[in-house]
User: Fold this.
Amino acid sequence: MDRIFFRRELEGVATFWRIHRRDGVTLGFTSHDRDLRFDGVLHRAAPGMLPSAIRRTADLGPDSAEIRGALVHDSISAEDLSAGRFDGARVQIGAVDWQQLDRIVLYNGSLGGISHDGGAFAAELRSAKADLEADPVPRTSPTCRAQFCGPGCGLSENRFSTVAEVTTTDPDTSQVTFAGLDHMKFSAGHLRWLDGPSAGIRMEIMAANDSGLIIDSVLDETHSSGMRARLLEGCDHTAATCESRFGNAVNFQGEPDLPGNDLLARYPPPK
Assistant:
């Protein structure tokens, strides 16, 4: 867009920001006193909630920004923040002419740490340039460094995913049992709920036994039988599992036979 903002002393310019959650929900807000619709998103007037000053740099250092506000809007609640619905969400912040709807995006990033105290919350924003801080040089390790069914693994996620229905839940132990499922295959995997109060939320599977799966989050008491989830099998990232279970040793991203740092300090095995 060729529009240059703030060339005149008085302009009808408001701030807008969008939150694209990982469960597919997009929320739009504006500092204007009425709702604005553009780019196919309804931006709701959100009094008491504003992004802070945005600092943009020409170097490779991350740009800084922050969102603070009161938990007064129905779209953002303490329950959703605690449930992790906003973790890792993508954020866009910009300026919009509330009369002509000319707009420009000033900031792209994602939500980092989120804290809430009483009726207020604060969210740290990580700019897109923060990805440049990642170390691209791999480190040696006896286990596979690749994410299971991710880049470098070479296996298809659809092949090792399944949709199953809940039969029983135990909120006290965070255990879930699914119908017709070999639970042991899903240890160290994850699931994403398709129904119920946690729909769209991903949960990690910490352990498995013959009777169910232990997940890393507190289960809502309204979770009941018949609710569906999409589950991805787990991998312990060892060379033996990669070869025997998945037949994928050619893509193993590790060095299982490389001596460790303690090689010189090891004692010989007893005869």
Notes: Residues 183 and 210 are 6 Å apart (CA to CA). The chain has a mean pLDDT of 82.
